[in-house]
Amino acid sequence: MLPFGGEGHHVRIIGHVDMDAFYASVEARYNSDLRDKPVVVGADPKGGHGRGVVTAASYAARRYGIRSAMPISRAWRLAEAARRRGEPATVFIPGNRKLYAEVSERIMALLAPSADAFEEASIDEAYLDLSSLGSFEAAAEHARSLKREIDRREGLTCSVGIGPNKLVAKIASDFEKPDGLTVVRPAEVQEFLDPLPIRVIPGIGPKTEGLLHERGIRTVRDLRGVEPLQLVDWFGRWGGDLQAKARGISDSPVSNEWEPKSIGEQETFEVDTLDAAFVLERVRELARDVFARLDRQGFRAFRTVTVTVRFADFRTLTRSHTPRAHLASEDALYAGAVRLLLPFLDHRENPRQKKLRLIGVRAEKLVRAITT
């Protein structure tokens, strides 16, 4: 733990650590043949006919336009186009969740004790409250030593943003990737944010971006210039929040109390199907993965089972069930999921017998310890 400085004139100093192309970098770390190559982690592309999406792409693959969450078939076409131009061939790999989780745990264990407060935001990013270091210079020096330590122990690079709050720190960590360190002091926040595209604001996805672009709003400066009431008119209560974000204002705490609310996995099938034996076998596999993650993160039980079903026409439905007693085994998760899914295989939830494209299994209301 860092020694706490005097209160009162206490300036908040928050760091955001973001591992660079994490899954792809871990793969290259453990298989030197992949180093500096275009690597895509995700579903099998099946020569451009594969289903599912890109989980992660190395920086070399990103130069071809490949991005995470892109359909794997599109990634394959981009990779092929690059290969025909004489660029290096892209390596597609299915990925190894267990390995990524183990590496992540070691990195988080290295970061956590180095801060006043720590928050794991996802498998490859974390917030650190560094306020007690007293200055942004000291925080930057601390970040450099953490970066060196991660590189020494794991052979991986990360990018760090340091700012007066979580919002600015997160945007800063993405500013100079890979292996970047960007420090934004309180007096520099507006100058830093203003020229950036609106997509840097967390919560602005393609849909909101499109709506704002239609209204001529492209940069954070443009967004800041819109009357708050106008934003509320367009986006409801969330609009007021957008205005604060455009000004770099956020008082969200770095919280050790953060707990995942749920853990889930989903799978897009290669071919749309209503084959009950196949679907139930995939449910078994998903339940196994979800339960292994629960166990790894120290959860002993859960209260609710949720399934997601996406039909061939992309219509998506979810169903949940919360029994009276806690559920504490992989079999209980599987049984609960099967019970919710079976009606989608017959006339009860699927009278037109539409084929299924995707299924998901999720455990919710997670429990650390079972009290009797």
- Report helical residue fraction: 25-40%
Spatial arrangement of strands, main beta sheet: 5-6-1-7-8
Q: What Rg, in angstroms, do the CA atoms define? A: 23 Å
Distance between the termini: 35 Å
- Low-pLDDT segments, ≥5 res: 1-9
Give the topology string: H per helix, E per strand: EHEEHHEHEEHEHEHHHHHEHEEHE
Biggest β-sheet description: 5 strands, mixed
Shape: globular
CATH architecture title of the largest domain: 2-Layer Sandwich
Strand content: 15-25%
Global mean pLDDT: 92
Q: What is the CATH class name of the largest domain?
A: Alpha Beta
CATH homologous superfamily caption of the largest domain = Reverse transcriptase/Diguanylate cyclase domain
Structure, described:
The chain has 372 residues and is an alpha+beta fold. The chain folds into 4 domains: 8-31 and 95-192, 2-Layer Sandwich (Alpha-Beta Plaits), CATH 3.30.70; 38-89, no CATH class; 194-248, 5' to 3' exonuclease, C-terminal subdomain (DNA polymerase, domain 1), CATH 1.10.150; 262-367, DNA polymerase, Y-family, little finger domain (Dna Ligase, domain 1). It has 13 helices and 12 strands. The strands form 3 sheets. The chain has a 5-stranded mixed sheet. A 4-stranded antiparallel sheet has the order 9-12-10-11, with helices on one face. Strands 3-2-4 form a 3-stranded mixed sheet. Helix 4 (97-111) runs antiparallel to helix 5 and helix 10 packs across helix 11 (237-246). The radius of gyration is 23 Å and the shape is globular. The relative contact order is 0.11.
